[in-house]
């Protein structure tokens, strides 16, 4: 059994699924609307949607004969929270590089004065 974060990352590993989520960020859509820009069968798009639904990234409603898909951002917030734990590391690295570059620049300024 995979943990939630692994399931989310696995679902996001496919570029088609990321494109489907990007479309759903604009608003809910039917499977036909989601499949329109892709050169693949409705069944293939449905399989991608099933993976996204299994990861909790989308929900499907029930409206007459249609089951519109809707983005659910809760797993993305959890992923962002996990990535945030590394943000301080990255920003600390940039701060160190900035200080190093300032030190190099200062050193160049002293060299031209001598």
Give a short synopsis of this structure:
The chain has 114 residues and is mainly α. It has 5 helices and 2 strands. It has helices at 4-12, 15-24, 31-35, 42-54, 74-113, and strands at 58-60, 69-71.
Show the helix and strand layout:
Elements: H1 4-12, H2 15-24, H3 31-35, H4 42-54, E1 58-60, E2 69-71, H5 74-113
Antiparallel strand pairs: 1-2
Helix pairs in contact: 1-4, 1-5, 2-4
Structural write-up:
A hairpin with an 8-residue loop joins strand 1 and strand 2. The chain is mainly alpha-helical and 114 residues long. The protein has helices at 4-12, 15-24, 31-35, 42-54, 74-113; strands spanning 58-60, 69-71. Helix content is 68%, strand content 5%.
pLDDT < 50 stretches: none
Strand composition percent: 5-15%
Let me know the largest β-sheet: 2 strands, antiparallel
> Distance between termini?
67 Å
List keywords for this structure.
two-stranded antiparallel sheet, mainly alpha
């Amino acid at each position: 059994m995979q943990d939630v974060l692994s399931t989310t990352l696995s679902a996001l590993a496919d570029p088609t699924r990321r494109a489907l989520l990007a479309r759903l960020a604009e608003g809910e859509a039917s499977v036909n609307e989601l499949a329109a820009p892709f050169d693949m069968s409705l069944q293939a798009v449905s399989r991608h949607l099933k993976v996204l639904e299994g990861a909790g990234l989308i929900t499907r409603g029930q409206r007459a004969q249609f089951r519109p898909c809707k983005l659910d951002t809760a797993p993305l917030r959890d992923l962002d929270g996990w990535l945030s734990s590394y943000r301080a590391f990255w920003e600390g690295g940039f701060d160190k590089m900035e200080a190093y570059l300032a030190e190099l620049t200062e050193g160049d300024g002293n060299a031209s004065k001598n």
